[in-house]
Design a protein that fits this description.
binds nickel (II) ion, 2 domains, elongated, alpha/beta, Aminopeptidase, about 400 residues, single chain, Alpha-Beta Plaits
Length: about 400
């Protein structure tokens, strides 16, 4: 017999109604005070203040100082982990909101203010529910810094967020969410298997022999060479990658000389490489090196390739996905739970939790009903939709109230 009765979910909705005005206030306060990766001192302070006020035990100062790990007791021997990322981006906000960023060049343009608020709301509501009847399973609340390029999730794992060494028992499964501008508020979506891509960085230095632009035959022109390399790199996806697999090679940076009549000695290229499988990732790295060095040699130049591995693939465990689907359907209704057909080639450091325990990441709709588009994530006009706070909390609470067998 499940303790996750409809009555308990009704109670969750009641408590959300009570808490929502306070939570929207928190979201707007966080939005006005964005902080970059590993500098989230004020944000971490807000998280700690709210947890303390709700009577939730926590450990601060993780992952370089701004990570916070909260714990709610429950009946089972292992806990369910719920995660929020708390950092902002180096973007100049253009929303014109009354609660727009007070720091020039800093902005919550990825909605992590919303994610943080949802997890705080979940903590407050679960703490109140726990006073009425024990939670079926302890809950570990992971507030992590530096999702944006800082691998804060990896550092939280290294600092004992999941192994029970800091607070509460070992985490048996992890769940996380991200605002999604492509689907309506009130809905969620996910899929089994790859959800987001491995995101790597490549930098290439092409050395030639510079000289007078009017006498190219006396030089080894690295500009012509790098143009050929940029073109040829695109054939790695079209010719070397299985058409039924997915990969992206995008060169975004190209720096050459600075005079109209001088062939430079050197050109630098940079870009991003995305993949959904480890074997494909390895092949992309190897082929980029082969193509760049081979084409450079053909142009009497040399190419040095630096391949930097970023976040791994965010892969949803089938059983964790099953729990998500049951929890979301139970709380929102089946028509508001959408399967995500294709993975998204963006990257997420939630992937590090998924490498440690069975995990499921899901998208939370942000689009106002009746509208067909909104400013994208990382856009200077993006704003998290306050209406989505309720949906995020409902699904997180429903997951926490699930009393099925541990996944690990
Ligand atoms: Ni984000």
């Amino acid at each position: 017999m499940s303790t996750k009765t409809p009555a308990r979910l009704d109670r969750v909705r009641q408590l959300i109604d009570e808490e929502l005005p306070h939570l929207i206030g928190i979201r707007h306060d966080l939005h006005a005070h964005p902080e970059l990766a590993y500098q989230e001192v004020r944000t971490s302070g807000v998280v700690q203040r709210e947890l303390a006020e709700a009577g939730v035990d926590f450990v601060p100062d993780l992952a370089g100082g701004t990570g916070v790990l909260g714990h709610l007791p429950g009946s089972a021997e292992t806990s369910i982990g719920l995660r929020a990322d708390i950092d902002a981006l180096p973007i100049l906000e253009e929303t014109g909101l009354g609660y727009a960023s007070k720091t020039s060049g800093r902005m919550h343009a990825c909605g992590h203010d919303g994610h943080t608020t949802i997890l705080l709301g979940t903590a407050r509501i679960l703490a109140r529910l726990a006073q009425e009847a024990p939670l079926p399973r302890p809950v570990t609340l992971v507030f992590q810094p530096a999702e944006e390029n800082g691998a804060g999730g990896k550092r939280m794992c290294e600092d004992g967020a999941l192994d029970g060494s800091r607070i509460g028992p070992r985490v048996e499964s992890m769940f996380g969410l991200h605002g999604y501008t492509e689907s309506e508020v009130g809905t969620v979506g996910s899929r089994v298997g790859p959800m987001l891509a491995a995101a790597d960085e490549v930098n290439i230095v092409i050395e030639g022999r510079g000289g007078h632009a009017a006498m190219p035959h006396t030089c080894a022109d690295p500009v012509i060479c790098s143009a050929a390399i940029v073109q040829a790199l695109q054939t790695i996806v079209s010719r070397n990658t299985n058409p039924l697999d997915s990969a992206v090679v995008t060169i975004t940076k190209m720096h050459a000389g600075d005079a109209f009549n001088v062939i430079p000695d050197r050109v630098t290229l940079g870009g991003t490489v995305r993949s959904l499988q480890e074997s494909t990732r390895e092949e992309l790295e190897q082929r980029i090196k082969e193509v760049a060095t081979g084409i450079a040699a053909a142009h009497d130049c040399t190419a040095q390739v630096e391949y930097l591995r970023g976040y791994p693939v965010t892969r949803n465990d089938p059983r964790a996905y099953g729990r998500f689907e049951a929890a979301a359907t139970g709380s929102l209704g089946g028509d508001r739970v959408n399967p995500i057909e294709h993975p998204v080639m963006g990257g997420e450091d939630f992937s590090f939790y998924g490498e440690a325990v069975p995990a499921c990441f899901f998208f939370l709709g942000l689009l106002t009903p009746g509208e067909t588009e909104m400013p994208a994530l990382h856009n200077a006009r993006f704003n998290f939709n306050d209406e989505a706070i309720r949906t995020g909390i409902e699904v997180f609470c429903s997951l926490a109230l699930d009393d099925s067998d541990p996944l690990s």
